Amino acid sequence: MVQSKTVVERTLSPSQKRAWLDCRGKWDYGYREGLVPVEPPQERLTVGKYLHAVLRQYHTEPSERRSHAMLMEDLERTWDSQLSETSRKKAVNILNTFWNTLGKDEEVPPLGTEQELSVMLPNAVRAHGFLDDLHVDHVNQLVTIGELKTGEDPDEDFYVFFNPQVYDYAWMASKQWVGYNIQVRHTLLSTAKAVRRVVPVEPRVLLETEQEWLICADEIYGHPLPIVYNRTMRCARGCPYYLLCLLRGTGGDVEDAKRVRYAKKGAVRLDVEQEVENV
Q1: Beta bridge partners of 186
Q2: Most distant CA pair in the chain: distance in Å?
Q3: Helices H, strands E: what count in the chain?
Q4: Among 206, 265, 193, 249, which Cα is nearest to 16's?
Q5: Alpha carbon distance 96, 259 (integer Å)
Q6: Is 184 helix (H, G, I), strand (E, B) or coil?
Q7: What are the C-alpha distances in Å from 27 to residues 5, 147, 265?
């Protein structure tokens, strides 16, 4: 008799990893329970998604067909009329900035093409995520991670040097193309300027990032740590689950708040299913 087993892998994304490191309670509500606020997302985030989609479509077209009119037509065709006119004008101005700076340069690498990277971790955990752009130069053994940010006037140094998610993708790339050098190409678009900077990723940063992934995979799936619900001023300023922690700490009705203020999305799998076959 030969026994074989099939293990259902579990996944760990950069945003899930970041939530766990920030606050286990935030991870528990957002990923184990799959709760999302029913309030509409902030308009600035929605505008960014539309701009990414328009630029992605723009770079799928042959260079001879790309034009300023195409950018504007794609934006108008996909734009949600429920968003404010101020947001629409902001999106138009950012696309104008792109066209007047980077859009006419055929040597500029694509923006927003969106590609997936994944790496297997212990405990049948697959680290995966979708990044804006990826280019692999096999001749020079160089991987370029593309990161696109849009906004009113993005803080250049903040996005270039204090954006941990790009290092998650850089680490995944280093595991997929072993021995290659890794660099990040930051593109920052605002209503006033376009900035492009290429920054090499040091091996030390890749090692530190790998340790974070291994620790999170073990603490979530391997040897789960107890969930701790923090309640601080830092949480109050931006955590979508602050109300639940507040009710939990004051004896309020947490379950009722979940039903009224949150919807359910897909939760992560914390179990491992095994199928045993007799041969």
Answers
A1: 147, 197
A2: 70
A3: 11, 11
A4: 265
A5: 43
A6: strand
A7: 30, 24, 13
CA distance 152 to 13: 28
From first to last of the 279 residues of the chain, give the pLDDT tens digit. Answer: 444 455 556 889 999 999 998 888 889 999 989 998 887 666 667 888 889 889 888 888 888 888 999 999 999 998 888 888 888 999 999 999 999 988 766 666 666 567 889 999 988 899 999 888 888 999 999 999 988 888 766 555 555 556 778 899 999 999 999 999 999 988 888 888 888 888 899 999 999 999 999 999 999 988 888 887 766 555 665 788 888 888 888 888 989 999 988 988 876 666 544 332 322
Place of tokens 């696109």: 148
Residue 103, φ and ψ in degrees, nearest 5: -65, -30
Among 5, 263, 279, 11, residue whose Cα is nearest residue 130: 11
Q: What pTM value is reported for the model?
A: 0.81
Torsion angle of the four alpha carbons 184, 189, 193, 196, in this order, in degrees rounded to the nearest 10: 10
How far is residue 90's CA from residue 68's CA, in Å, rounded to a whole number?
16
d(C-alpha 129, C-alpha 266), whole Å: 16
- Tell me the residue length of the chain: 279
> How far apart are alpha carbons 39 and 59 in whole angstroms?
33
